[in-house]
Design a protein that fits this description.
The structure holds two protein chains of two kinds. Chain A is mostly helical. Chain A has helices at about 5-35, 45-65, 75-95, 105-125, 155-175, 180-190, 190-195, 200-220, 230-245, 250-270, 275-290; strands at about 145, 150-155. The longest helix of chain A has about 35 residues, at about 5-35. In chain B, strands 1-2 form a two-stranded antiparallel ribbon. Helix content of chain B is about 70%, strand content about 0%. Classes of the chains: A mainly alpha, B mainly alpha.
Chain lengths: ~300, ~400
């Protein structure tokens, strides 16, 4: 094995880590808003991601059957639709369920678990129990090979790019918009926020819905990597919660950092061990670190 | 007669007695052995639900990893039974006789050393209780001493459940993988599969369950039980009074874990196998709903809840598999939104006062109008706050 080969392996391994990082981050972002900012445990988060994934599948089927000419472009529009649908579903869930339970976080957990079961069965009844994958536009397929022996998959790059865009937008929204200001005020001190005229109920609903919308985008992006089934959402949920908790619940920067750390740990251990042992090792490390430092990597300075 | 009626309605001993009649007499008389074995399986889940009443209802700590302890107890028992089932005589067609079949399939040539002690039944019985207790102690010590509770505890226990599932499935040479440990036959030469032993196991399970209920009732009535309730509702005040909140929480977490381990062992004995599908996140949360449906404050209610949910599950997933998940969803949401104290709560607030009023009215009719309901005898379940465990003050980790 020459030096160039080793270099290529290192590069591809690094890319695999980055790719996993963007997947974890994209999963975690919506939850970072819902759980990190609002403190709501949304066990149905994975199912909101599945909404996004099925939207892409529907869009691809529709476009393929009725407007094959639009094939190259539909994906970007479908992502927007996925956001809107998941946003709507989140809005509805907050109105029907979550808003009654803000004072009982553990009960929210059970209620949203029930919601996720219901959503899973709805997906199963609508789309069938089999896993489906959308027909992807050609520009998402294949890989990019800048030099001999180096293969970088395009879908991985796409997910990374999308993660970058979504993260940027969330930072902008949270720190540069009126809505972000209201959210942060409500998180810091709900009573005071109410007193100065912020409609915290409306803010809550908007925040929850936006978090769900981002979950929808994440689910849409994951269709480029894997197939979608009725229960695929439940695969992500523990990882997503760990990413957010590990980063420090109220800190968005912490979520980014922890997603990076977890992804790198896992992809590096995966290189040396089997997949399941790498997963066990990574999770165990996170749990042990969380036991030693329960507030996570970046603790927010909030007076409680 | 009046006194008996009064006692039947109000005393918690009477409710245990009624449950005992249902489980020990009515069920064995009405159900055939197949159904009874199924009920026995449900009753092994009831250990977990009873543990959750202590942990969640009284302690205010929701663990989403009770399946871990259930699984540890179950696997400990399964390992003993598996070793006995794979003696060199019956496994002589394997390339290495005398080791469990799944090890042989995975090219293991010798029994791993940590399997060796499970040749002994005494060790196994100790392990069924001790292994969950030790793990619970480690988790509880690390978390409660750092004042982690509520939501964070739930997430971390959930992660532990995921870790154990992935580990069991990944290490199939040592654990049997996805299929788990199957073909369990005898216990010290006693066949656990024939009908008479199923009856014996059912009764053993039921009696153990009642022992568990009595132990929990003792804890509830002791000072520790009162302190647990106090901690759930106003943690800081208990701390300011000079108690170490963490120690009580660790204790109740370990107690619940031991109960889960016992339940797991009884499950393995009655069902005849153990697999990772009883360890993971989904079964762990389902076990929480057993306690929630029965009433998170009521030990007896938890048993009824377990039976009810499992009967429903068996019936619906056989006849209307489509409907079952929707029903389960409705159960989760409905219990949380409308009946936070479950069946026991409905009994306490709606059925019992009505029964009592009838009696009081009948007794008082010749003399005076019925007394106001405020004079009704108050019972033990009265301090249950309607909002339940979720109201405990300290939710997140104590951030400085």
């Amino acid at each position: 094995m020459s030096a160039a080969d080793i270099w290529n392996i290192v590069l591809m391994q690094g890319f695999a880590g980055l790719s996993l990082f963007s997947v974890l981050l994209l999963m975690g972002l919506g939850l970072a808003i819902i759980f990190g900012q609002m403190g709501v445990i949304n066990m149905a988060h994975g199912e909101f991601m599945t909404i996004g994934a099925y939207t892409i599948f529907l869009a691809s089927t529709l476009v393929q059957n009725y407007a094959p000419g639009l094939m190259p472009y539909y994906f970007l529009i479908a992502i927007a639709v996925a956001f809107v649908l998941a946003f709507g579903a989140g809005w509805l869930a907050e109105w029907a369920l979550i808003r009654h339970l803000y004072r009982r976080p553990l009960d929210t957990l059970l209620a949203t678990w029930g919601l996720s079961l219901g959503m899973q069965q709805t997906f199963r009844s609508t789309f069938g129990p089999k896993e489906v994958s959308p027909t992807l536009p050609d520009w998402l397929m294949g890989s990019w090979a800048p030099v001999e022996g180096l293969d970088i998959p395009i879908n991985g790059m796409f997910v990374m790019g999308l993660t970058l865009v979504v993260t940027g937008m969330i930072f902008l929204l949270l720190y540069r918009s009126r809505w972000g200001l209201r959210v942060r005020a409500t998180v810091a001190n709900r009573v005071m926020a109410n007193a100065i005229g912020i409609n915290t109920r409306k803010t809550d609903r908007m925040t929850f819905a936006i978090g769900c919308g981002i979950a929808g985008v994440a689910g849409a992006a994951f269709t480029t990597i894997g197939s979608t089934g009725p229960t695929s959402g439940s695969l992500y949920i523990v990882d997503a919660f760990l990413v957010v908790t590990f980063g420090g619940a109220a800190s968005l920067l912490g979520t980014v950092a922890s997603a990076f750390g977890i992804a790198q740990t896992q992809s590096i251990t995966e290189f040396f061990l089997t997949g399941s042992m790498a997963k066990v090792l990574t999770l165990l490390t996170i749990v042990i670190i969380l036991m030693i430092r329960p507030q996570g990597l970046f603790a927010a300075k909030v007076r409680r | 007669m009046q006194k008996l009626r009064q006692w039947l309605i109000t005393s918690d001993l009477a409710s245990i007695a009624i449950l005992a009649i249902v489980i020990l007499v009515v069920m064995p008389l009405t159900a055939d052995i197949f159904r009874l074995n199924l009920i026995g399986k449900y009753l092994s889940y009831a250990f977990v639900a009873v543990g959750l009443v202590m942990l969640w209802g009284y302690g205010g700590i929701l663990s989403l990893g009770q399946g871990v302890f259930f699984g540890l107890g179950g696997y400990a028992m399964a390992m003993f039974l598996k070793l006995e089932a794979s003696d060199p005589e019956t496994t002589k067609i394997q390339s290495t006789p005398g080791i469990p079949d799944f090890m042989d399939w995975n090219q293991l040539t010798a029994l791993p050393t940590w399997w060796e002690p499970f040749h002994s039944l005494t060790f196994t019985i100790v392990a069924v209780m001790a292994v969950p207790a030790i793990l619970a102690f480690i988790i509880g010590f690390a978390m409660f001493k750092r004042r982690v509770g509520g939501v964070y505890f739930a997430i971390i226990t959930q992660a532990v459940a995921l870790i154990l599932t992935v580990l069991i499935i990944g290490q199939q040479g040592y654990t049997g993988g996805v299929n788990g440990m199957t073909d369990l036959k005898t216990m010290h030469g006693w066949d656990i599969r024939d009908d008479s032993s199923k009856y014996i196991l059912y009764y053993a399970n039921a009696i153990l369950l009642f022992a568990a209920i009595f132990v929990c009732r003792m804890v509830q009535r002791s000072k520790a039980g009162t302190l647990l309730l106090a901690m759930r509702d106003k943690e800081d005040r208990v701390r300011f009074s000079g108690y170490d909140v963490a120690n009580f929480r660790i204790f109740v977490f370990c107690l619940a874990a031991v109960l889960c381990g016992l339940g797991g062992a009884m499950f393995t004995l009655q069902v005849g196998f153990m697999s990772p599908s009883f360890v993971g996140i989904v079964p762990s949360i389902e076990m929480v709903i057993f306690a929630a449906v029965g009433g998170r404050m009521s030990l007896v209610g938890a048993v009824y809840g377990t039976l009810l949910v499992n009967f429903g599950k068996t019936y619906f997933s056989e006849s209307f598999p489509q409907l079952w998940l929707f029903l389960m969803a409705a159960l989760f949401i409905g219990v949380v939104m409308a009946f936070p104290n479950g069946l026991a709560g409905v009994w306490e607030t709606s059925v019992k006062p009505r029964l009592l009023r009838k009696r009081v009215a009948a007794a008082a009719q010749p003399k005076s109008p019925p007394p106001p309901p405020a004079t009704l005898p108050t019972t033990e379940a009265a301090p249950a706050s309607p909002s339940g465990a979720g109201t405990s003050g300290n939710v997140g980790p104590a951030t400085a």
